[in-house]
Amino acid sequence: MSIQARLHAAIQHAWQHKGLVSTLMLPLSWVATAIIARKQQRYQHQPQHVQQSRLPVIVVGNLYVGGTGKTPVVIALAQALQQRGWKPGIVSRGYGVRLGAQARTGQGALKADEYGDEPALIAQQTQAPIAVHPRRALALKALEHNYPDIDVVISDDGLQHLALGRDLEIVVQDARGVGNGRVLPAGPLREPASRLSDVDVIITNLSPGQEAPPAAAGPALQITMRLAPTQVTQLTSGRQILWADWLTQFGQNAVSAVAAIGQPERFFAMLRHHGLTLEQTLALPDHDAYEHSPFSAMPASCILITAKDAVKCARFADERLWVVHAEPEFSDTNWLYWLHQRLNLLAPKKANMAATPSSD
């Protein structure tokens, strides 16, 4: 295990307990909590600084720092809304991409080095228009201007970006829940755990065999999800095979897996749970740029990668690379219908507010 991996594991362990290391960090967490509260009050008392949309805005975010599984939820949500007749647009940060004062917009096949790996994947999977910028409010304005036909906006992350007005909030967490319940750096939370009482939906992303953490207090819908592989695509040829068929044809070979996501072990555990024996696994840092091929030193006959990594790996032209497409299985799919109904009520209200002249 690398030094970086050991450090990450030690931090994660400390964040699950209120031990000595966490307690020593508490004064810094108190300062962070005070700054968070002051920021919230500023936006509450100065609503003119909040960018409101003429459309319903759904924010999909998290409290726990790091990967909890927001991207699969954003994709599933966008696709579910499209199936129900909506025309969603997406706003995202564009992690790792250099952007100037203006947001960057696009649709369809987008380059990961221009939009970020997650936005590129979301655009590819949903075909929905997307705008990226660290300031989500700027991304929202650009999205509405360049794609006037959209009728709902989904923010990929952005729960803490209070300058972005929102109508519905979805928090994605995993089996770690809120950890030790403390705010950074004494704990893993970007905001106090009490924030969960204000959101609309809490989705807990679980690996095989994991149990959900204790339910949060409050009125939010609380459901679980587990990712399951549905099909596999050979990256060089585009050949698509259903997961069960791929397992029959290639699963007995020497198969390895590589992932550069927030929780690589979750990907590996999913593959094992669904019938695959892995010869080797390689966990890379989240959002790794793949500047050099990590695959050339791997002797495997087949190498499985995530769809998020695939948008950066086509240039290696390695015929052994197969992209695993996984879809979430929700404990209660009625939440998507509930959301659809909420949007049906919100949309005309938002339109009327936009059409009403300001009294200023």
Q: Can you put this structure into words, describing what you see?
A:
It is a single chain. With 360 residues, this protein is of the alpha/beta class. The protein has two domains: 35-225 and 331-348, 3-Layer(aba) Sandwich (Rossmann fold), CATH 3.40.50; 228-328. Helices cover 34% and strands 21% of the residues. The protein contains eleven helices and 13 strands. Strands 1, 2, 3, 4, 5, 6, 7, 8, 9, 10, 11, 12 and 13 form a 13-stranded mixed beta sheet that branches. Helix 4 (70-83) runs parallel beside helix 6 and helix 6 (117-126) packs across helix 10 (307-313). The longest helix has 22 residues, at 334-355. The radius of gyration is 21 Å and the shape is globular. The mean pLDDT is 93.
Task: Tag the structure with descriptive keywords.
360 residues; alpha/beta; Rossmann fold; 2 domains; 13-stranded mixed sheet; 13 strands; 34% helix; 21% strand
Topology readout:
Elements: H1 3-15, H2 20-24, H3 26-45, E1 57-61, H4 70-83, E2 88-92, E3 104-106, H5 112-115, H6 117-126, E4 130-132, H7 136-146, E5 152-156, E6 168-174, E7 201-205, E8 221-234, E9 240-242, H8 243-250, E10 255-259, H9 264-273, E11 280-283, E12 302-306, H10 307-313, E13 321-330, H11 334-355
Parallel strand pairs: 1-5, 1-6, 2-4, 2-5, 6-7, 7-8, 10-11, 10-12, 12-13
Antiparallel strand pairs: 3-4, 8-9, 8-13
Q: Compute the gyration radius: what is it?
A: 21 Å
Low-confidence stretches: none
Mean pLDDT: 93
Give the helix/strand class.
alpha/beta
Element pattern in H and E? HHHEHEEHHEHEEEEEHEHEEHEH
Whole-number tally of structural domains: 2
Measured by DSSP, the beta-strand proportion falls in 15-25%
Q: What overall form do the CA principal axes indicate?
A: globular
Count of DSSP-assigned helices = 11
Work out the helicity level.
Answer: 25-40%
